[in-house]
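Lecture 7 notes: from sequence to structure.
We start with the chain below.
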Amino acid sequence: MPSTRRSLLTAFLTLPLIDMARSRAFAQAAPALPLTPACDDEDGLTLEREAGPFFRPNSPPERDLYPNAPGGERITVAGFVFDNRCGPIAGSLVEIWHADENGDYDSVGFRLRGHQFTDTQGRWWFNTIVPALYPGRTPHFHFKVQRPGGRVLTTQLYFPGEPRNAGDRLFDEALLLEIKQTRDGKFGRFDFVI
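Predicted structure tokens for the same chain:
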């Protein structure tokens, strides 16, 4: 019987504090979701991407975004924020915004927009929907990530196996989510290294 998004998130949240260089605890709990980046040097930092024209400041402190898009396919997106020595960064701002199931962004309110701060182990997660593609773009999530007192990383995360990835000028394989299909939607994993 396939896992659920909730069971994978529960496994993720019950992990003890880990050091990526020494532990693959989450990969053992969910073998299809290995840790995303290598964070052993400057080359392991998460790639930057433009914010695009749809960013709006002052998103609400919200991690459950799916109620505003009941027609969309559910996904839980989760991960850690690490420094380049693989140490978790507590209190980091993680902000998300993305298109809805029709490929539209909310340009008036804060539908499918939210932010949170990582916990003491550097963990973050959002319950949302899979964004649709729109002209010129493959499906993607926008993120801003900032460690306390640090500079802001602006980037985008993509879905593996999407036919439009190759034609999207901003796409890079280093920004692919690790996706697991569950009984009640998808579970995506990505660890930011800043």
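Points to note: The longest strand covers residues 74-82. The CA atoms of residues 78 and 128 lie 11 Å apart.
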